[in-house]
Amino acid sequence: MRQGQKDREMWVSATQLAQMGICERQVVLDHLLGLRLTAEQRTAMRRGCDAHAAFKREADQHVGDAARLKAARSDDRRLAAWFVAMIARVRRPKGLA
Amino acid sequence: MMLLACLAALCVAACALWLRFAGRGNGLPWRLRGAELVYSERVFAGGIDGVQLSARVDRAYRLASGDFVLAELKTRSAAVAYLSDVIELSAQRLVMAVATGERVQSRGYVVVQSSDSTQRRWLRVRLLPREVLLGLAHRRHALTEASQLPAFTASPGLCERCRHRALCDGAQPASSCR
After folding, report:
1. How far lies B49's CA from each of A7, A89, B91, B129, B136, in Å?
2. Residue A66 and residue B140: Cβ atoms within 8 Å?
3. CA max distance for chain A
């Protein structure tokens, strides 16, 4: 895609759009000059990244646990079905196929 | 009879308190208990009425009804949700709905983690409708193309901490910010 076409299509991220709720002047100055973060803002950003990484790890753990639980339940169901089938076979009256 | 009425009132009050405070701390809000966590830190992108939107969703839960609910993590000292959080979540909702075809609820959660601990608060917010969001995208485009003039922030406190304060109209005093 050519740059001009890309510009006309108006690309925007949710984060960039969120900035409209803070200050329009900041939006324009960021667009013209780029992000000029202060040391304090850089520290806050790093802290945010760390918190997000921990949030993601927790989510992955949660998804992994849920998948394991689902698999274990499925195994339990298979085992229960096998057990019921065995009992039915043992208790089946002789003479029946 | 009176005793029964008092007991019933106590039960109702206990239930109301539980509903009010469920979800405080690190635990999920009661509305999300039993919901399936489907997406975590997932990027979605899509075109909506000429606007190409992209968003990284922190978490998306699927309720028993099949609807999705979004959650966005923020680290800050005060447990408050700002307009910028609502705009971000609304954009995530719009782009996720377009990209996946799923229904995403018009209420989401801003999860505020305090800067100095792992304590979290889940704040439920109402998201913006599609038209408002697309209007914001068009306004942003007009500002960056210099076809419209940008407004000052409504919060004087933001001016004082702004990274462009030295350049913004000759560093106006914070009190002049509208």
Report:
1. 15, 64, 14, 14, 13
2. no
3. 90
Instruction: Count the alpha carbons within 13 Å of B158 in the hemisphere toward its beta carbon.
Output: 16
Task: Closest CB to A17: pick one of B47, B136, B152.
Answer: B136
Contact criterion met (CB < 8 Å) for B144 and A28 = yes
Q: In this predicted structure, what is the pLDDT of residue B15?
A: 57
Largest CA distance in chain B: 73
| Single pTM value for the model | 0.75
pLDDT, tens digit, for every residue of B44-91?
999 999 899 999 999 999 999 999 999 999 999 889 999 999 999 999
DSSP conformation letters of B41-102: EEEEEEEETTEEEEEEEEEEEE-TTS-EEEEEEEE-SS----HHHHHHHHHHHHHHHHHH--
The whole-angstrom separation of Cα B173 and Cα B157 is 11
Per residue in B124-173, pLDDT tens? 999 999 999 999 999 999 999 888 888 888 777 888 878 888 888 744 44
**Strands B107-113 and B120-126, how do they pair?**
antiparallel
Q: Do B73 and A51 touch (CB under 8 A)?
A: yes
Report d(CA B71, CA B60) in Å as an integer: 6
Of A17, A25, A47, the CB nearest to B140: A17
Q: What is the DSSP letter of B104?
A: B
Closest CA–CA distance from residue A70 to any residue of chain B (Å): 12
A48 contacts B75? CB cut-off 8 A: yes
Average pLDDT over residues A40-60: 87
Nearest Cβ partner for A56 among B40, B113, B144: B40
- The Cα-based distances of B14 to A75, B2, B18 in angstroms read 40, 18, 6
